[in-house]
From TrEMBL:
The keyword Nucleotide-binding does not apply. Its EC number is 1.1.1.-. Gene3D superfamilies: NAD(P)-binding Rossmann-like Domain. This is SDR family NAD(P)-dependent oxidoreductase. It comes from Acidicapsa dinghuensis. InterPro entries: NAD(P)-bd_dom_sf, SDR_fam. It comes from the Bacteria. It is an enzyme of class 1 (oxidoreductase).
Amino acid sequence: MTKSIFDLSGQTAVITGASRGLGQYFGRALAQAGADLIVTSRHADALAPFVTEIEAMGRRALPLELDVRDHDSIVRFGAAVEKASDQVHILVNNAGCNVRKPALDVQWEDWNLVLDTNLRGSFFVAQQIARGMVQHGYGRIINIGSVTSVAGFAGLGPYCASRGGIKQLTMSLADDWGKYGVTVNCLAPGWFKTDQNKILYEDREWVEYLMDRIPLKRHGEPHDLDGAIVFLASEASRYVTGQTLLVDGGVSTGATRATARKV
Ligand SMILES: NC(=O)c1ccc[n+]([C@@H]2O[C@H](COP(=O)([O-])OP(=O)(O)OC[C@H]3O[C@@H](n4cnc5c(N)ncnc54)[C@H](OP(=O)(O)O)[C@@H]3O)[C@@H](O)[C@H]2O)c1
């Protein structure tokens, strides 16, 4: 029987920040497509229920500790990955955080937290995992960006800067590692309701404002990302690199929607 170009059987995927939220959805989608997982959190214990869930699907899931703000932790993590797995085929650089504040209130520490986690962390994790991918001549790196990779939003200065940086970093790494058979792309979700931002969705006025600007007229559900993550992780995307794939209900088309006449 011909293998589907979306089939990930026999492959290993590393997903950072898989203790909750979108990281777990990415993990489920990749495991469903056949991949075994290596999953991370700053607190390995927090991964136990997810590991059990993935094992119940008949896949392997190895929990590892990783703090992407700590270079020593990244190096230790890289060594543990190398020891545990002959080859990593897929990396999902998902660990991230946000600080929502008006720009005038942003503190030096807020900036460092968001940029160190989202941008510097993603770079050094990619570097660590790419060493093995380069040796094997194959890899799929998926950096998680955001609609803020391509548009600015009030109250999200450091976050937008970090996600804009991820888009540029993706292009740069794609150019660096393409010759080794490693593709690097950015998956950029729009407005999804998760633990990280559920408080926003309690503000009905804001939700109405947002829905008016999303062409598909709803916020994202985590499963809306399943197809995109499997596509970027699989053979199906073999000639795609350096790209940012927005999965956002079309909100990025509507930067001028606020000023346009309603139709
Ligand atoms: N939710 C959305 O609507 C949305 C939209 C666009 C993009 N994103 C991005 O998608 C990713 C996941 O979002 P989410 O909503 O699922 O977030 P979340 O629920 O807050 O989960 C964030 C994950 O990142 C990990 N993490 C945070 N800081 C870390 C650090 N210093 N070192 C290692 N891991 C760290 C956390 O693990 P531990 O705390 O267990 O260590 C957790 O597993 C983030 O990068 C986010 O910016 C989200």
